[in-house]
User: What shape does this take?
Amino acid sequence: MVRLTVHLIAKSSNYSKTCRSESLQQYLKKLTHLNFSNKSIEEIDDLSRCRNLTVLYLYDNQISQICNLGFASNLTHLYMQNNNISCIENLSSLHKLSKLFLGGNSITVVEGLDELKSLKELHVEGQKLPRGEKLVFDLRSISSLSETLCILNISKNNIDELWDLAPLRKLTHLYATDNQLQDIQELETVFSQWSQLRLLDLNRNPVCHKPKYRDRLITALKCTETLSRQFLINWKASKDAKKKLDDGKDVKERIANPLTTDFRVGPQHPFAHERSSSLSKPSEYGKPGVTFRVHGDSRGKRYEQSKCLLSC
Assistant: This one.
């Protein structure tokens, strides 16, 4: 069994470079960032000598339990995605924790977050759930996060409703792709509670096939005025670009077939080119005023959005 211990830290290359100038005790006391990702670690040992630790990377390991972190009162970022964790526990002492990454584990209930009064980002996407089960939320934890949580990633968790998340009124970014959301009335009610929502991604949910789902969700959002106006502007621009593209194809077909060529046709219309990008990493989340992109309907249209983004 590979355990994360102070001796393992002592063997790390970073300490080896400084061991001649300071003792292990001094090194551990000064340590603020610790990266032991993808090291086949199964257990966290006593690291209480690392009292000034602020960022801990333990993703891509084989850890089954969150433990021995009670000392880390200065920890602000904890990365434990892609492990074997089944329960969120032993985090009550991490009062300064602002970002928690637990995606790709075996968690069935989002709980144990009651004391995390500084948590702004929570990532629990892609849990390895038992067949037919969905990720559920402990109401005490959600209530405790209602004044702080801004970014939530719950994608790929077989979730079919969002009622329990309604208290998260400070939410600005929600990633809920690849779930089973389909009740548009429920979504309208929940979204109407989130006055600060700026990015919403519901791609690959059944609700995306509902008639006029986008119009209804835009109306429910509190950022309706900015979103709707920009949406209509971009829709018209997209429609005009498509018309130019179709006209250009028409010209090519006429030239290719001399029997139907119209020699009075003027200059060929230019083809519209579209730049695209995606928010693929947690570190790339947008800030107010930054241009976001909206992924369009099943025909692949995309609309640029100045302040709010609806992707579904």
Remarks:
- The chain has three domains: 3-158, 161-222, 226-274+285-304.
- DSSP finds seven helices and 15 strands in the chain.
- Residues 130 and 288 are 38 Å apart (CA to CA).
- The first strand starts at residue 3 and ends at 4.
